[in-house]
Structures are given as structure tokens and as C-alpha cells.
Amino acid sequence: MESTKHYALITGATSGIGLELAKLFAKDNFNLIIVARDERELESTAQILKGQGVDVITISKDLFIPNAAQELFDEIKQRAIQVDVVVNDAGQGAFGKFIENDLEKELNIIQLNVVALVTITKLFLKDMVARGTGKILNVASIAGKAPGPYQAVYHGTKAFVHSFNEAIRTELQDTGVTVTSLLPGATDTDFFKKADMLDSKIVHEQELADPAVVAKDGYEALLAGKDMVVSGFKNKVQVTMGNVIPDSMQAKQMGKMQEPLKEEDR
């Protein structure tokens, strides 16, 4: 028998947008399953969230590893827990010219940003559709709306995620299950450090968004069952302009925004 307690599952829940989303769910009395690689960070995050009076289950999984997403699903099923909301927040980038970047690192990013997300979405979605209820929030990015020199693979993965979200949402009409696509812009998280991107112009010359604000936008869109939300006015303008500007021009503009700082400017 399934547990009478229902849960929201959040990957990448120990920092950035994922952590802020977890706080919002906890504040609204959702029980949580939080997933990340670092067990100590998971435990410290769990203690913060438990302060809201909710149950918090921690699962340490490295979603860069093939089959880790399947293992995550299997472990939750073995515990007979019903997951009513899935948030796929875990994601990473790799900074630099595609021809110079390490292939294995970029393939790992595809594994995390695409393969793990698709696997988790499919496995939990089947249960949701069978019950006739459920919500999924997949974190895409405005990066998926434009080609991104110096982050070619990351931008490509986020383009996939958003297109994937919109496609399966249409397939799910009349099932009682919704899929929402969250498109943040550059946000003040540890993303840039993990991507070895601290010397990029975008970090030094742009105002980075507050992850709490981005999370709130995504959370409200999820609960409302919206198809997508672009977080931030400037990002909304950028996406709107991108709909009429040729991809080649967008790529050049994005390349200027993301290129490395000159040595004298570092």
C-alpha cells in the first residue's frame, strides 16, 4: 500500500533555485524528497526545511551517472511513497569553446541536463497519469531560446528541455497532469563556479537574478498549471526579441555577452 503522505521531489535541492523552491514547498506544508550528490549538504538542508514542520527525505544520487535516475525512482517506489510533484532542477554547464572543451565533461552535462531529466519525468509521469493527478516543473532556461557560444552544449540541452516540456504537456491534455517549463536568466547561484565561468563577461557585467525570486516565479506557475514562465522582465524582453531576430544574430550577441574577460579586465 502507498503511504498516505504525499511528497514533492526536488533534484538539485541543496543550493540555488532548487533550495529556494524547496523552502517554498515546505512553507506550504509539502513533504519533501530532496536529491543531491553531497550527503552533508543534504542533511544540513533537511534540518532547515524540517523547521517548517514537514517530513524531509534525503537521497544522495549523482545524476551524472547513467542509471542513477532509474535507481532514484526505484528507491522511492520501494518506500511506497506517492510523489505528487516533481521538480527537475539539477543542471550544469561547461564554459569555453566547444572545440577546446573536454568531451567527457560535455557528455556528462548531456547526461545530467537531458537524460536524467527525461528519465525522471517519464517514470514519475506514468504514475501521475494513472492516478489522474500530478505536476512537474522542469527547469529550462532562456539559454534554450538562443544559441550560446562558449556554452554551446548547455544552451543546446536547455533548448531540448523546453521543447520537450511543451511537447509532452500537449500530449497530457485532459489527463489531470501538468508540465511547467521554468526559464530563468543568469541567476546568482553556484552555476557559474561549477561551469568554470567566473571569468565570463556575463558574470561581471550583468546583474544576476535572485534565486528566491526565480523560484517564486516557477512555484507560482507550477501551482497554477501554466505551460511556462520566463522569470524577470529583462528576460521576457530578451525572449520576445529573440522570436524575431535570426539565430545567427542572436548567437553573435550571446557570444559577446558570454566571452571571457580580457586579461587586463580580470
TrEMBL record:
* Source organism, top-level taxon: Bacteria
InterPro entries per the UniProt record, alphabetical: NAD(P)-bd_dom_sf (IPR036291), SDR_fam (IPR002347)
Q: Which UniProt keywords apply?
A: Oxidoreductase
Establish whether keyword Cell membrane is in the entry: no
Gene3D superfamilies, alphabetized: NAD(P)-binding Rossmann-like Domain (3.40.50.720)
Keyword presence, Oxidoreductase: yes
What molecular function does GO assign, one term?
oxidoreductase activity
Alphabetical list of Pfam families matching this protein: adh_short
Q: Name one GO cellular component term.
A: membrane
Report the family membership. Belongs to the short-chain dehydrogenases/reductases (SDR) family.
Instruction: Give the protein's recorded name.
Output: SDR family oxidoreductase
Can you name the source organism?
Answer: Pedobacter endophyticus
